[in-house]
Amino acid sequence: MTRRNRRMARLALPRLAFLVVPAFLAGCASPPVRFYTLGAPAIATGAVPTGIVTPATPVVEVARVTLPDYLDGQDIVVRAGNQIERSATGRWASRLSLGATDLITAQLARGRTDLFVTDQPQSLPATWRLAVNISRLDVTRDGTASLEADWSIIPHDANLPILHSRAAFTQAGAAATDGDTARLTQAVLEQLAERIVAGWPR
Known about the structure:
- InterPro entries: ABC_trans_aux.
- This protein has about 200 residues and is an alpha/beta fold.
- It folds into 2 domains: about 1-30, no CATH class; about 35-200, ABC-type transport auxiliary lipoprotein component (Rossmann fold, 3-Layer(aba) Sandwich), CATH 3.40.50.
- It is built from 3 helices and 8 strands, in the order αββββαββββα.
- The strands form 2 sheets. The chain has a 5-stranded mixed sheet with strand order 5-2-6-7-8, covered by helices on one side. Strands 1-4-3 form a 3-stranded mixed sheet, with helices on one face.
- It is elongated, with a radius of gyration of 26 Å.
- The termini are far apart.
């Protein structure tokens, strides 16, 4: 090889590296992160699906659902024994407490069309306030979702009693993917919402 050819080869090496390194990194890139919602029914928050809202319509203000700290984020997690595994490929579209609040609000609005149900602060005291505390919400690798919760229906009228309830729910299904985990999570939250609707005072 001539001196001129050797010089040209040395000059070409950095250019070749400039092309090869990005291609290598692109081949090693992680799969794109997918975002999931809890699939709450398409009911606008604070809206009554049917009927006319009047000054006499009872108002229900749904407080933000409380969850254990390790769950209340955007990470999709599954439980493996006493370990919590966070997904590298799936995320909730919003904090889980917000998604759960939206779902319960929508389910209550759909199930009780005689009420004005909202999770937004109101200018006047609501007729009732709903406070939901989820103490456990686990999806395991073997496809079992478990939820334990208590909730209180708090009337504005101090002469009426506060209604306290507690329940536990389970749901079985596939849990191989982030989508499966999202569906199981939604299923047990829907069971909770249905129980709250069924026990609402008439």
